[in-house]
Each structure stands twice: as structure tokens, then as C-alpha cells.
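re the bet — no i am not wrong, look at it urself. input seq straight from the record:
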Amino acid sequence: MIFDKETAKQTAEVLLQINAIKLQPNEPFTWASGWKSPIYCDNRIVLSFPPIRNYIRETMAKHIEAHYGKVDVIAGVATGAIGIGILVAEYLGLPFVYVRPEAKSHGRQNQIEGFIESGQNVVVVEDLISTGKSSLNAVKALEEAGIKVKGMVAIFSYGFEVAKKNFEAAEVELYTLSNYENLLEQALETMYINSKEQEVLAHWNDNPSEWNAI
């Protein structure tokens, strides 16, 4: 779910302004999965724009304070959310750790990098939610280490039904600054896209894995 409508609208606007999100319904991108997609999202670009990264940092941090209460540690999901996760932790004056996709095969063989203790409360920070698989993999690693995951906050979600089901099955509460539905509304309002392009983009979101055939 989104933080609130106004935040969703403002976040979508700034992500489009800096090309962190690109919409190309007529010249689709190809994801690593092989899916054809009219949208490409790289929220790491946010880090290069101080006013926007500060907006993201403060909005996330204030939501964590208001919604989750006492938190001991902020955890970022490697690699995309490390930067924004550190900024959020710094704003809140909290320790920071990050979670790798899998444990290292050398050294101390850590999957969780940084100092955190069993029993501590953590909120996970993510940059982008697609299916939710990699995000929930980080949650699983934290829980297996005896850490209580209070929830997850992310910059943007594609709003896929599979992600919703994955988070519900894992019983993990997810909040995002913005999502695909609000992005399309804002893009149309600001004439970034036209109504015909909005229809194409909405159709992709309904069944992204089959959009190759269109």
C-alpha cells in the first residue's frame, strides 16, 4: 500500500523528472527476465539529486517513526537500497545493516553485513518492488538470524498481483512511496504520456509476462 495519495503523486513526479523512471510504450525495454516492458525504473539515480534524495529520505524516515514506533536498526536490501537505507538510518540516528542476496562464499560468509543482534527490531528499506522475491529473501535471512522484522518501506512498486500475494503469504507489511497506478495518473496529468499510451501501459501491468506477444 502507498503511504498516502499526495506522497504517491509527488514521488511519481520527481522520479519522472530525473528519469529514474522511464516510460516507453512504443520502444519497450527488455528486462533480465526476458519480459518486454514499457517501463524501466532505476531509483539509484535518486542519490545523484540532493533535494530529491532528501525528500525520499525524510518521507521514509517520518513514516517509519509514525507507523512502526521503536526500531533498533534499519536494514537495506543489497545493492539497490543500500544508499537510501543508509540515509534513512542516518536521519533517524539508527544503526544500519544490509542484506546480500545470499551468504558470501569466503571470509566470514555473511549474508547480513553490519552489527545486529538477535531480538532486535528492524524495518527493511527497499528501492523497488517487482515480484517481491528478492525483498522477501532479505526478510527471511533477518528472521532466521532471530531478528524481528516490523515491516518494509520502498520507494516504488510495480503493483503486480504476484507481489501482493507473496507479501501476504510471508505476513510482511509493505508500504511504498508510490506505485504504478499513481505513476500513470501523474504521467497523464503532466502530459508525459497521452491517454492512448496510458491504456497500453495499464494493459502491460495487468499481465506483464505475456506482454511479449502484443
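see?? The chain is about 40% helix and 20% strand. told u. also The chain has a mean pLDDT of 93. so pay up
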